[in-house]
Amino acid sequence: MSRAEQYLSEALEAFDFGGELVGAVRYGHGHINDTFVVHTQPGEDPCRRFILQRISSAAFKHPEQVMSNIVGVTRYLGGKIAAAGGDPERETMSVWAARDGGSYFTDSEGSAWRCYPFIEGTVCLQRADTPELFAASGYAFGRFQRQLDGYPADTLYETIPHFHDTVDRLRKLKAAVEADSEGRVSEVGPELDFVYKREADCSVALDALARGELPLRVTHNDTKLNNVLIDRESGRGICVIDLDTVMPGLAINDFGDSIRFGANSNEEDEPDQSKVHFDLGLYEVYTAAFLEGAGGALTDAELAYLPWGAKLMTLECGIRFLTDYLEGDHYFHTQRPRQNLDRARTQFKLVQDMEEQWDAMRAAVEKLK
Ligand code: ADP
Ligand code: GN1
Ligand code: MG
To answer: How far apart are CA 315 and CA 278, in angstroms?
Structure first.
């Protein structure tokens, strides 16, 4: 039994779900937290579901800061959505407080658990089955950024320091190579060469930020397709979820992380990288939808750097998967050996494809702006 299952019953006790508990099972495909869906039966009323999550202590050292950000952001979004005539119960997450009134519960081992009402009538996709669905996620992430435009950024904690600091990610990879704690470095020579050849690229976005060319905004920072819920009936992206990393950041990174995951012709962990291709058509579709969702908020410099966002988020994610592989797979959940290595390799294949299609990536943005 994993650690999360061991402490699940304590967590279930800590929340009042407003009905009889029917059961709780593992749920979803997130790489970070331990997620369960809880079924309850409130009297004669229909069954009600909740999401119960053990927050990853490998990723988040200060769960109280994570929850402070999430409570603040979801309340703010709820107000905006209501004012615009939307449905805050479906269009934003909301925190379901613990019995003691707090936004999370700490189990006897010290892990933090939090709960959200399950947003019904939605699907969460692991792959974009159609370009329209990928566009729906782009619109939702663009809109999310626009909705948070006026949010007081200085009240947000940095939940993972240096999260999208690609230079720091490279530094950490080098430290993992130096330590070689699992004896895996000898397996990854070509991957390390690939990354080291691109060392100068790692600072491109950060340098543009330091020069004042790119603005700091309130961003999501983890804009995978499976971090948006799509309305089952309309096919529209209605709710952005996984708000653990909402922090000041770069718009181009939110754009880029979606491209990294969604404009891949195959799975993120495909073991045969010859089957992995960057899909320029999907990139174009996403770009149009993201810009529409952002409602003209992006500056000319941000538009010009969008291709860099895509390439850097992909390179950085490959660096992170590779680092975790070398360190023994402690950060990202894995289901099989070498999965993080396959994930790293797919990212590097995508980077290579992007480099080959760089001019077309730039031209696509030019055409759309
Ligand atoms: P992780 O950080 O591990 O990726 P997420 O917060 O993304 O965790 O949650 C994992 C999965 O749980 C999501 O991809 C989605 O399928 C599901 N999920 C999370 N919150 C909700 C919610 N409020 N309603 C419905 N499904 C949800
Ligand atoms: C993680 O939490 P999840 O599965 O949505 C990770 C992202 C990576 C992604 C790679 C907090 O996203 O940064 O890009 O895996 N989240 C965190 O699939 O590290
Ligand atoms: Mg997630």
So the answer is: 13
Question: What residue's CA is closest to ligand 2, atom 17?
Answer: 32
Determine the Cα angle at 158 with ends 86 and 226, to 5°: 50
CA–CA dist 16, 13 (Å, integer): 8
Helix (H) or strand (E) run with residue 249 in it: strand 247-249
6: Cβ contacts below 8 Å, ≥ 6 apart: none
**pLDDT per residue as tens digits for the range 128-185:** 989 999 999 999 999 999 999 999 999 999 999 999 999 999 999 999 999 999 999 9
Average of pLDDT values for 325-351?
98
Give ∠ CA 141-142-147 in degrees, rounded to 5.
Answer: 95
* 27, 29, 31, 267, best to mutate for ligand 2 pocket (most atoms within 8 Å of CB): 31
Nearest to 114 by CA among 124, 122, 104: 104
b/e per residue, 196-219, with b = 16+ CB within 10 A? eebeebbbbbbebbeeeebeebbb
Whether 63 contacts 364, CB under 8 Å? no
Determine if the pTM surpasses 0.90: yes
Query: Which ligand minimizes its atom distance to the CA of 346?
Result: 2
> 278 has which bridge partners?
264
Ligand 2 pocket list (CB less than 6 A): 30-32, 59, 222, 224, 227, 242, 244-245, 257, 268, 317
